[in-house]
Write a structure and sequence with these properties.
Radius of gyration: 20 Å
Number of helices: 15
Number of strands: 0
């Protein structure tokens, strides 16, 4: 079997397609509900979509669930150092390029609705720009901070030799901390440190990975039920802040149905090893979703303002098509070579310092972990 065939056989291809659906949900949430109006622009791009586009915020938790699965998958056979290098080399070069591209677009085309500064660009080099007193270059970056925090915890637990071997204990302690904080002091520092607003989604992904490996026992079913229940609770809990902030009215039953349906679909996708599409197309779909997520919001808004006199449907269609093409170009000609270069350079540095670097025994199923809304 050719190397490319082996890699294709090891991928969970359906997850690449689900990533595209998730990013599409977030994209239409930003254009059809959240919209440029949140930036003092007097209209939402596609207001007639608001009644269903408002539920697109749940695309981000879908990314978190898939990330839980993929991170557990990709941690197999790696050292903590190898895991950290793999994640950094996949995430940061593309982020740096897309963030800089957004900065240049805002700088040259953004006024009067959008503005930026070199200081903001410098703060965004550290991803978590608000910690340095500046706003994100793109509002969608908040979820990337959540993802990176999750990876950091995984790396620490791998170094302690408990991940993924003690997955049940990790999940139970994590969810225990989540509810202890939620039902008592509700401290923002604990929410950020322990990802208490999103822990259930990651936990569901971790449990789905255990099923993927073939594990079946009462304890796992109990942990799955607890994780799903937490995810549903957190989906509804998000409405406490989201409703007043956006002025939207959300149907709780719809939110629960989308949350449970998404979990079921992701679970089913991990049982489907191949999809009836060319392998190269599936890889490209999975690859372009990360830059598309990074570019779609602020960059899209900037161009939308330039199309202010154009029919909104045509304007959004042109912008989305352009962003999809741009995202494919970034993935094909920027991300892939930058990933290889960064990984090789970091591995060489780690070896020089005597750190143990072990590649995975099995190829990663997708590049999903680079997400999210």
């Amino acid at each position: 079997m050719l190397a490319s065939d082996r890699q294709g056989a090891s991928r969970v291809q359906a997850l690449d397609l689900l990533r595209l659906i998730a990013v599409a949900a977030v994209l239409f949430y930003h254009y059809g509900f959240w919209g440029p109006s949140s930036h003092d622009v007097p209209r939402v791009a596609l207001p007639w979509m608001a009644s269903f586009a408002q539920y697109g915020f749940l695309g981000v938790p879908v990314f978190f669930i898939i990330s839980g699965f993929v991170i557990a998958y990709s941690a197999e056979g790696r050292t903590a150092t190898g895991f950290a290098i793999a994640r950094f080399s996949r995430i940061y070069p593309t982020f740096l390029f897309c963030m800089t591209l957004t900065f240049l677009a805002i700088l040259t085309l953004g006024p009067p609705h959008f503005d930026t500064s070199f200081a903001q660009w410098c703060a965004n080099l550290f991803v978590a720009a608000p910690a340095l007193g500046h706003s994100y270059m793109d509002g969608a970056y908040w979820s990337l901070v959540i993802e990176l925090s999750f990876y950091a915890w995984v790396a620490v637990l791998m170094a302690a030799k408990v991940f993924p071997r003690r997955l049940d204990h990790i999940i139970l302690i994590w969810l225990g901390i989540t509810f202890a904080n939620e039902l008592t002091i509700d401290a923002p520092i604990f929410e950020k440190l322990f990802l208490a607003d999103d822990s259930g989604f990651f936990a569901v992904g971790l449990v789905i990975y255990e099923f993927f490996r073939g594990r079946r026992d009462p304890k796992l079913y109990a942990v799955l039920a607890l994780s799903v229940g937490t995810a549903v609770f957190q989906s509804l809990h998000k409405l406490i802040r989201l409703g007043p902030h956006t002025g939207g009215t959300f149907d709780h039953a719809v939110v629960v149905a989308i949350c449970l349906g998404s979990i079921a679909i992701i679970f089913a996708a991990t049982r489907l090893r191949r999809v009836p599409l060319p392998a190269g197309l599936v890889v490209a779909i999975g690859g372009l979703t990360y830059p598309l997520y990074l570019l779609h919001m602020q960059l899209g808004y900037v161009f939308l303002m330039r199309f202010s006199s154009t029919d909104a449907v045509w304007a959004v269609s042109i912008i989305i098509s352009g962003l999809v093409l741009l995202s494919w170009i970034v993935w094909r000609f920027i991300e892939r070579p930058a990933h290889r270069w960064a990984k090789d350079a970091l591995i060489a540095q780690a070896i020089r310092r005597g750190l143990e670097v072990t590649v995975a025994r099995i190829p990663e199923p997708t590049a999903i972990e680079r997400s999210p809304a």
